Amino acid sequence: EISTNRPECIIDGKLKLRVAFDGAYDMFSRAVQIAYTTLRETRPGREALKLAPVTKILLNRHHLSPPVLRIGKCSSIEVIGSTVGQEKNGLPRNAYRTPFHEIDISAISVGVDENGNAAADIEIGIRTLVGDVRLNQVRIDLLGTYTVESVTGKHGFVVSSGGSRYSFQVVGGPVDAILREGERLSFDISLCSNWNFFGDYRSRLRVARQQRE
Known about the structure:
By secondary structure, the chain is mostly beta strands. The chain has helices spanning 27-40, 43-59; strands spanning 8-11, 15-23, 81-86, 92-97, 101-112, 118-128, 135-143, 147-152, 156-161, 164-172, 177-181, 184-188, 200-211.
């Protein structure tokens, strides 16, 4: 199930995959957002914005420096608009607009995996809209009550919750690492895109559920 008011995907009503940012949504970044919006409304401003990423790259100041193996703070994301749609196969696709990003979450396929477990492929896309938003970290958090059973490198993990076992596997797109703090897990994607300057990101996760015997 894909949420209609938050950029997240609900797994069986117990677990949630939610896009999370550390930084970006503070007063400084809001001021930067207003400045970029103003520039985009004029032709000279748009031409200047085209040169801005080049300048940033030359100065090598545009990359994130995320905390190593640590889940950072979670900024409060204001969803200012959302669209509920469908993929060609009839599965749901929700698009969310925030002051700094466009986020879309889609159910690409629903069925069973090679072991006969109920499974779904979830695609998450994030696009930065406003330039230098001073992000510290970007991730996809797993929320809810669960127990971590195993973590496999940066490719996936298995948790148990409510009498079922859930496998989360990266099957498309880049992931920097899987971060764990106690019974809290997150896919870190901080270096997978030029987030601070109109970066684009897309990843696909396969979620499978196995009932305990």
